[in-house]
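Good morning N.,

You mentioned wanting to compare the apo and holo forms, so I went ahead and generated the holo version with magnesium ion. This is what I fed in:
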Amino acid sequence: MKNLRVINLKKVYGRGESEVRAIDGISLEIQPNKFTAIIGKSGSGKSTLLHCMAGLDKPTSGKVFIDDLDLYTLNDDKLSKLRSEEFGFIFQSYNLISVINVYDNIVLPISLSGGKVDKKYIDDLIEKLGIKSQIKKFPNELSGGQQQRVAIARALANKPSIIFADEPTGNLDSKTTNEVMNLLKFCIEEYKQTLVMITHNDEIASSADNTINISDGKVI
Ligand SMILES: Nc1ncnc2c1ncn2[C@@H]1O[C@H](COP(=O)(O)OP(=O)(O)OP(=O)(O)O)[C@@H](O)[C@H]1O
Ligand SMILES: [Mg+2]
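and this is what came out, ligand included:
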């Protein structure tokens, strides 16, 4: 389990008249092994915050700590190593690679980072996510919900401590949304993970352990 802390984070895009303070002084702590939902209007800064917390986008100022490690003091290689070892990412678009099959999509990030694939764990994950009969198929042969489950398996394949998700159910119908959410909640229990998820879905947000409400780049 890893502790994630953000101290006086700011992210400014552009300058002068076109300046946008996407994140305007946010400090927070994410509770380990819990589900934290990030909510707020479109353009309020949710994705920017998530990307800064996840080491994907360098803040203009402020700090992000993973335990005692100051994320943005790391060089690019160390930062991407940390991301591939400790973090999992799920986005609204599944970003699966169309020319390789489902199984290869799931283990690709591990192979790319030179890690060792824990076959038993991956098989277990595939079983639990209900995609066992699809692993030889190609992404375009799957439904949206199935593709998102593959994307979840890919995000969990490296046994991340923290899963960052940006509206992962945004393109799914309500039944599939429920299934995907139940699977994610099951996984964080089963594998002692932390889930940080942006959502516009009130029902999902109210099922979270904690909620962070963002408005104009600030926590309200
Ligand atoms: N690369 C960028 N360059 C310039 N401005 C940006 C960039 N990325 C985001 N912004 C601006 O920063 C603000 C916050 O954007 P962000 O994507 O974080 O919002 P959001 O809360 O995720 O919105 P949504 O719910 O629509 O996804 C917006 O005003 C946006 O226009
Ligand atoms: Mg967004």
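The two ends are 27 Å apart (CA to CA).

Happy to go through it together on a call whenever suits you.

Best,
F.
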